[in-house]
Amino acid sequence: MTERRDPQVLLVNGGVTEEAYVLIEPNLSPTPISSSAQSKPRSSALSCTPRHLAILSIVCGFSCVGIKALLLAVKAENESDEKTCHHLSRSSRRWSVLSICLFLGTLISLPILLVLMSYILAVAE
Fold first, then answer.
1. Where, by residue number, does the polypeptide cross the bilayer (predicted)?
2. pTM score, two decimals?
């Protein structure tokens, strides 16, 4: 099997050029490989982006608060200003965590309140 390396120039990060190579094998089509993809291998685990966390908070939390977090996450992804994007992402994460915590608090407090009401009714008789 013979391999040939042909240099190609890729545009990365808004005008910064980097050189990458394409391996050409006889029976395969060429595939470009960027240097950023080589340096950061993608893991198969779920990444915790604000959008994923917001979707999780809709499913596993109070939906109305999770929808607010999802709207902020989408605004953050579409924002061009980095400072505003960071602010919107933080707000989205906070709303997502609030949604999940409120749901868990409700799940924990309802059985406790049920036991407390049962005790109060038993004492009242």
1. 53-74, 95-122
2. 0.59
Q: How confident is the model at residue 43 (pLDDT cuts 50, 70, 90)?
A: low
Q: At what angle do helices 50-59 and 82-124 cross, to 10 degrees?
A: 20
Q: Which residues pair with 6 in a beta bridge?
A: 22
**pLDDT per residue as tens digits for the range 72-98:** 999 999 988 999 999 999 999 999 999
pLDDT of 49 over the 90 cut: no
- The residues with which 23 forms a beta bridge, in sequence order, are 5
Query: Residue 89: enclosing H or E segment and its boundaries?
Result: helix 82-124
Show the tokens assigned to 12. 């990365």
Q: Where are the alpha helices (DSSP H) in 45-81?
A: 50-59, 63-78
CA distance 87 to 98: 17
